[in-house]
Amino acid sequence: NKESISTGQVIISDSRVHQIRDVLRMKVGDEVIALDNTGEEYHVRLISISQKEVVGEILSQKKCEAEPRTKITLYQSMLARDKFEVVLQKCTEAGVTCFVPVITERSIVRKTDKITKEKLSRFESIIAEAAEQSGRGIIPSLKNPVVMTQALSEMDGYDICLVGSTQDCISLKNILRSCAAVPEKIALFIGPEGGFSDSE
Fold first, then answer.
1. Per-residue pLDDT reduced to its tens digit, 81-117
2. What is the largest CA-CA distance in the chain?
3. What local confidence, expressed as pLDDT, does residue 127 receive?
4. Interior CA angle at 127 toward 196 and 164, to 5°?
5. Strand pairing of 185-190 and 160-163?
6. Phi, psi at residue 188, to the nearest 5°?
């Protein structure tokens, strides 16, 4: 986090200490890239590794180039847990900036209270790991689950809203070509295995 970066140093004192010291077996003098979740990246040389913290000297700083220009919020209908986790991972790697789990008529999970804090915490870990793996400068956010009507009430502020459909409809390519300018904020709705219902 941003508070761990000051006076030319990065101090790591969370679960990444174990990852750096025991899993990756890094040593003093090894170099890493540190991200502060604001879009900045730091080239860091490790100068101290202990049981409780890792300290690195900042060699250089620059804007992370892996962040997309267009901000996509994915309104993803709840799927079976393993499938939903794959969506979080792959879409983080592809550049989605925000995830909103949505309860739809054909969702496997039918109530928002069935998505526990533990599940949300696991989802956040998957997103963070995928962001790390793909060199993202900002970890995508995960919102609390909503029902479809609530999701649809949140469309103010988006340049365009897209809905994935198995029915005959306009292609994504044609929709984007018809935009007067490159959209800065997109809301993308993807349904469950059975698709959205007719009423949705």
1. 789 999 999 999 999 999 999 999 988 777 766 678 8
2. 60
3. 96
4. 20
5. parallel
6. -120, 120
